[in-house]
Design brief:
Number of strands: 6
Radius of gyration: 29 Å
Number of helices: 14
Strand order of the largest sheet: 1-2-3
Distance between the termini: 39 Å
Shape: elongated
Amino acid sequence: MVSLSAETTKVHMIDQVFFAVARQIDWDQVAVAIVNTAYDNIAVPAAPGRLTVAEVAADHDLDPRELYRSVRRALEHLLLTDTSFPRELRRALLRLAQAHLGSGDVNTAEALVIHGWLTGERVGLRELRDAMIYARIGRHNARTMLTSVGRLLLRAGYGGLVLHCDLTRLAEARRPPVPERTGIYYSKAAVLDAYELLRQLIDATDDLTGMLVLAVVPPELVSDEGLQPWSVSEVWLMAHEGSGHFVDVTDTFDRKVAALRAHQSQTSHLGDELETMLRSWSTTMAATAGWPEGRLAEARSRANLADRELDRRQRDR
């Protein structure tokens, strides 16, 4: 299990969450597992602790040069062709795996650069390019990196990843006096960003194979006024065959047209036809509703979720 705390990790920033997770993963052991898999795939299993090409070749009485070419192809096929992982992560893992072959492709300094890249240390762009990595980990790509970790650990033979997030610090609305402060404190905007990060993880559930996220929050975060659990009582659907609820838009029609015109990339090609088309639709809807000439309407289908929830509870009794 990997644990992080909002007191020591900026949990409102996805890249910092990934770095906190990455610092607790033994990337060398992950690379060792990948190398072992590559040897197994070419039917030349490696003995424990003997992963270099020279050692495996000696154990199986094989030509080291031929074995090197075979295991390198196996590693490249295993990692570079698997598009379920981010490209930069695949390249980083390939270099870490090659470092265990003892062939000189990757030296200790380059392996340290890759470790630093994974864990958020300051690494020069030139050193990263030498390691075939061309992008830093930031807020633009950290989400895919984080959601890949569970699948990667499964691939390496582990049972996946449990990520324990202690979010207690988010409940401290006011910072204490300077002498009493410890760790990180969050503004209201940062707290909302932390909620957004959690929402993104919920949305990414289908990608979290092999990964369980446990978010621990204090009671006040869910009991304060305005934060209680709630449910939507009604949903209105457009362009639905069961649309039978009509809304009079006569007085707001011009605002509707102006709002749609603001989306120039989608509507500018329509010109005056946009208003003509919308007015025609709204006139037809008003006539369908039986309203007098000159009125404009929109049609909706209303789904009353509150009644459905009540019916479900009654059935479950």
